Amino acid sequence: MHPTPAEYIDWLQPYPEQVRNLSIATRNSIVSRAPDATEIVADACNSVAMCLTYTSTHVKSFVHIATGSDHVNFGFTCGASLPDRLGRLAGSGKQIRHMKLWKLEDLDDPYLWEMFDEAHNRAFRPDPPLARQTLFMLYENAKKRRPVLSS
User: Could you tell me the pTM of the whole model?
Assistant: First the structure.
């Protein structure tokens, strides 16, 4: 298992404890299911986020999580093309779909993992494969529209 990056934990500090715990548990769950995927962690404007990809760019990620003030979005980069037989994926854009997670028990939802497996199976994988990395995207000078630590 790949440990949760210290930066990710630090960036989550302004969020409520329940949301921090849910975000970390979600991150750990997806990394354990795709241990060879590169992890990209972002201290973004709207949220603290992370994604998994088999490339070195978030553009080709297959799954992502974004931490909200009271929930976590579990997103699928190409979710609009996933076979959402229960119609539970939210979003209306051309590509991305997500499911909202409110509590740790939401990670026990088999449909969430069915969608994850489908997205993972469809993930772009370069040939030859790239070695797993953890990459960081910092938005240091951007105005944050999410919880931040007060100075």
Answer: 0.92
